[in-house]
Amino acid sequence: GDGNVSRSSRPSFRLSVSEDFEGVWERCVVAHGVEWLGFTEIRRLFMTLRQAGCETPVRMISVELRDAHSGCLVSGEIGFLVGRCYTCLSLFSDTENYPRCDRVRAAAGILWLSRAGVQLFDVG
Description:
Elements lengths: L12 E5 L3 H12 L6 H14 L5 E10 L5 E10 L2 E9 L7 H15 L4 E3 L2
Parallel strand pairs: 4-5
Antiparallel strand pairs: 1-2, 2-3, 3-4
């Protein structure tokens, strides 16, 4: 070979929304520590909101970015929707092993949310 890196050696990703809320939550705790957001009480409240589903105007969601080949969760965020407004609460990214995966997740997540009708984004 000529030593050039082919495009196929670049990672490809798969975006999903609310398929692995607990997995993203756990990775945020690993990234930010067990006392992240007052961990115990806030987690209980978030899980209660998530389980309530349509019974509350607040909908807890997660945005997940996975390596398309291995299925490994490489970046994610936890947030909530109220009407057409989205707020990101916390996130994590494995940028050491997947450079720029945080940017891919952010851009793809905003695109997905826009297509779902979200009009206002508070992402940090």
